[in-house]
Design goal:
By secondary structure, the chain is an all-alpha fold. The chain has a domain at about 5-120 and about 160-225: Hypothetical protein af1432. It has helices at about 5, 30-40, 40-45, 65-90, 90-95, 100-110, 120-135, 135-140, 150-155, 160-170, 180-185, 215-225, 240-260, 265-275, 285, 290-315, 320-325, 340-355, 355-385, 390-400, 415-430, 430-440. Helix 6 (about 100-110) packs across helix 11. GO terms for molecular function: dGTPase activity. Keywords: Hydrolase.
């Protein structure tokens, strides 16, 4: 059985003492985590990454940045509310100087970073990277040079695992606490496992790549996370709240964006949100607001507030089962509003996620990311493996890689997995706009300055 005192450890990788050692410090360890994330370059890049709708034409809809800020806000509310329950239930936590705000700060920081590993062009970008290695000649060509579990990483790109990689990377200098990193990791398993347990939500996807498995094992040991088998752990309990914050926000706010764009009628949107609000919905009060945007704003706020209360209640009711590992579901699947949320999800798939603007954006994303991976992967392969094909064009392409890109020490007998991992880091870290611009330049569609 996991215990809260150990689960809330603020220790960090490569740190012999706590960062916030001064008793007069005005920030907790977990607030430091939040501040480090929000000032980091990877987080800042989210302002130019797609949430659902294309960015240039529709500036009034959400980007990954605004979505992440909203998820973090909801996460803080979930964490603080659950924290108050836990402090009352376990008096020893208060005796150790733990406050409900610490729970809120952990969930807020982890939620703030939850999309930090997502590539350009949303989920289409994830598929594009995976498909490149599965199907493209200059992606598939690497298969015989890497190990099977490493190939699983490359052919199943996962934004959650990429996010963990970025958060523990020494290059980014974040040095987050173990508790925040574990709360961030909704899927505490690698890509390659012997057998997935389909009854466990935490095994639906994977949360770290092969070369970060030792990092996760270390933090899991420090926090006392229960190991299910040789490859998988139980979730950190606060990961359930991070997941709920994301589920609540994208369900309600994607619907709001879809209504704003005219893909879903205001009448249908109001009806769906009213089903969640129940007796709290007062249509006569709604009529006092003159514009649809005002009506949407008040309904969105009330609906999110209601869902927060339901999710906290579900978490507290199942807290002991979460600690023992007997509970492993999404909280939003078991709350009273689960069915209305499912209706919203089905409608969103039909009318929003498969709308023309979204499909056009996804098609462009496949083309752009495949094109970028092709030119760089081809040049790397020619330089180190098919050296007789290495050309002046390849040399020019490789000069476009970052200055710190690891171009030394590779030869045909050396496993190129770290090299390919660095390439995927480079491509997935791009913003939508930069990826499109670089694609046009390397393909000769446009020239610098035009």
């Amino acid at each position: 059985m996991m215990n809260w005192e150990k689960l809330l450890s603020s220790d960090r990788f490569d740190s012999s003492k706590k960062e916030n050692s001064s008793p007069e410090s005005f920030r907790s360890e977990f607030e430091i985590d939040y501040d480090r994330i929000i000032f980091s370059a990877p987080f800042r890049n989210l302002q130019d990454k797609t949430q659902v709708f294309p960015l240039p034409e529709y500036d009034f809809v959400h980007t990954r940045l605004t979505h992440s800020l909203e998820v973090s806000s909801v996460g803080r509310s979930l964490g603080k509310s659950a924290g108050e329950y836990l402090i009352n239930k376990y008096p020893n936590l208060a005796e150790k100087g733990i406050h409900s705000s610490d729970f809120g700060a952990i969930v807020a920081a982890a939620a703030l970073a939850h999309d930090i590993g997502n590539p350009p062009f949303g989920h289409a970008g994830e598929e594009a990277i995976s498909d490149f290695f599965k199907h493209h000649p200059y992606g598939f060509i690497w298969r015989t040079h890497v190990k099977p579990h490493e190939w699983d990483d490359l052919t199943n790109f996962e934004g959650n695992a990429q996010g963990f990689r970025m958060l523990v990377s020494k290059d980014n200098g974040l040095k987050l606490s173990y508790a925040t990193l574990a709360a961030f990791t909704k899927y505490p398993r690698p890509s390659h496992i012997f057998k997935r347990d389909h009854n466990r939500r935490s095994q639906k996807k994977f949360g770290f790549f092969t070369d970060q498995q030792k990092d996760y094992a270390q933090l899991a040991s420090e926090l006392g996370l229960t190991k299910i088998n040789a490859e998988c752990w139980l979730r950190h309990p606060l990961a359930f709240l991070v997941e709920a914050a994301d589920d609540i926000c994208y369900s309600i706010i994607d619907l709001e964006d879809g209504c704003t764009m005219g893909l879903v009628s205001i009448e249908q949107t109001v009806e769906l949100l009213a089903e969640i609000l129940g007796d709290k919905f007062k249509p006569e009060k709604l009529e006092k607001y003159k514009t649809d945007s005002q009506k949407l704003a008040i309904l969105r706020a009330m609906t999110i507030g209601s869902l927060i209360s339901e999710a906290v209640e579900a978490f507290c009711a199942n807290e002991e089962a979460i600690l023992s590992g007997d509970f492993d579901q999404a909280l939003t699947d078991i709350i009273p509003s689960a069915k209305p949320l499912e209706k919203i999800s089905h409608l969103s798939v039909k009318k929003i996620y498969r709308s023309k603007p979204v499909l056009e954006k996804e098609a462009a994303g496949f083309q752009v990311l495949e094109g970028l991976l092709e030119v760089f992967s081809k040049a790397l392969n020619h330089k180190f493996y098919q050296t007789e094909l290495y050309s002046g064009k390849d040399k020019s392409i490789l000069r476009l890689l970052p200055e710190d890109f690891p171009l030394d020490g590779w030869e045909i007998k050396v496993n190129p997995y770290p090299l390919l991992r660095a390439l995927v880091d480079f491509i997935s870290g791009m913003t939508d706009r930069y990826a499109l611009s670089l694609y046009r330049r390397v393909k000769g569609i446009s020239l610098p300055g035009t």
